[in-house]
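Deliverable D5.2: sample structural annotation.
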Amino acid sequence: MPDILNKTPLPPQKIDPEADLKYSDTSPKAVSRRRFFLLAGWWAFWATLLSSTWASLRFFFPNVLFEPPPQVRVGFPEDYEVGVVSTKWQQKYRVWVVRTKEGFYALSAICTHLGCTPVWLMAESKFKCPCHGSGFKMTGINYEGPAPRPLERVAISLADDGQIMVDRSKTFRYEKGEWERPEAFLKV
């Protein structure tokens, strides 16, 4: 008889359920497929949780556009020279204050073509829109470029303390004859 039948059987091998989760002996950096998907699942879970928490918290802090008040004091009449356009308030309030021999008027610093902010060119004595080339005289009348109408005037008055008050919430259009209204011009 052959000796194969007389041999004692080998003990059963232990099956380690965690064997797939351990690193292999051949490469210390190798990760099993099961471990990879487990890690990917946790990453996806935490990314989703954090992004939804961030979006929920961001809801309580909306983007706010801070605009200056419509009525502003722009100084005393003595602060302005006759025949000079004051660009002091162009950036902050988007208005120009102009003093003439008769008094004051305030022009809106918004181009009537597409809403860009024109610049005052003192050497050429005109307002020039950098977007599409519209040109306006010192009075605000358009004479070149695509702007369909003159610049708008804003309400101007004298406050109780003697300062000039500009109210940007009230605008006056030349083509409607509104520049003739008393609020569109401050006589001195």
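Annotation notes: The radius of gyration is 38 Å. The longest helix spans residues 33-59.
The annotation will be released with the project's public dataset once the embargo ends.
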